[in-house]
Write a structure and sequence with these properties.
Radius of gyration: 18 Å
Distance between the termini: 51 Å
Number of strands: 0
Number of helices: 2
Helix content: over 70%
Structural class: mainly alpha
Oligomer: single chain
């Protein structure tokens, strides 16, 4: 039971870290595709 709870806590921590990392590096569509030929 202890290892299951530890695995659940680890999964939550990893998911939270991934969410923070992805929100930091995410770009909006207007800034990602800001060339002359792109129509957003």
């Amino acid at each position: 039971m202890k290892s299951f709870v530890l695995a659940c806590v680890a999964a939550v921590v990893i998911a939270g870290g991934a969410a923070l990392a992805l929100s930091h590096f995410q770009k909006s569509a207007e800034s990602a595709f800001s060339t002359t030929g792109a129509r957003v």
